[in-house]
Amino acid sequence: MKKLLLGLCAVMTVFSGVAMVSAYEAHTVNVTVKVEDAITCNAPVLGLQFGTVFPEEWLIEDRAIALSSSANATLGEAEGDLDYVDYTVWAEYKIQSAGATPTYYIWLGDWLWVGIDATTPSGSSKAGWNQVGSQPDAGFDNDGTPGVPTGDMAKATACTGTLDSDTPQILRVMLLAPCFHTYYNADTDTKPLWWPTPDTAEWPLLDQALHDGVDLGLDLKIQVDGIGRVGPPQ
Questions:
Q1: Would you give per-residue pLDDT tens digits along the chain (234 residues)?
Q2: 6 in a structural domain
Q3: Overall domain count for the chain
Q4: How far apart are CA 83 and CA 76, in angstroms?
């Protein structure tokens, strides 16, 4: 009986020692991540500048959107490889001069269309093209100066795309230069169906600057919306 008690005491001592050791045992899991750009755009530093244009000109500029070198490096890996990158192109008011009270370029969105790998329109067809759109809450103030955008109307969705290979996609930007309101002749100026109508409330205000020219502008933003993988990230 005495031997049994001594044995039990020895076993309890061993277990209690294990418990005391495990209470001070720690494991370290090293967690690291390298964040890289998923896409690239070959737009120059100065952006896309159409320069001086004249009423009713029709101009198109192209920019390439592609997976970044880092994204291409993970495309097609055996495990956890990149499957696709979704992106959205949208327009935002362009600040003309930064300061305590920023001002904005007069909105260009009424006369700008964008498309991904879109073909040049012909006739009345504009397949693959999306108008950046108007901003009814902030076109002009009552004195004819550019208004300040507010809330969700500060941007307009233009188009979406998906990159799932190393082949770039072409963002095409089409400018339909506005015709000033009082100089438009509906009888002779026949335009495609998608040409902006010349009778918006803003256009008479543009007439004020006709002889000196008027600066219109916006920023096109290309934003990654989603990333898909065939397997879990490695």
A1: 655 545 545 555 555 555 555 577 889 999 998 888 899 998 766 678 899 998 888 899 999 999 998 888 888 665 558 889 999 998 887 877 767 776 777 778 878 899 999 998 877 678 889 888 755 444 444 444 555 555 555 567 788 999 999 899 999 999 988 776 667 666 766 677 677 665 555 554 455 555 667 788 888 889 999 999 886 655
A2: no
A3: 1
A4: 8
Q: Is residue 5 part of a domain?
A: no
Q: Give me 121's structure tokens.
A: 């329109």
- Token representation of residue 132: 């950046």
Q: Which tokens go with 168?
A: 């770039």
How many residues are listed for the chain in this entry? Answer: 234
Whether the CB-CB separation of 125 and 133 falls below 8 Å is answered with no
Q: Give Dmax (Cα) for the chain.
A: 119
Domain membership of residue 16 (yes or no) is no
Structural domain span for residue 224: 36-229
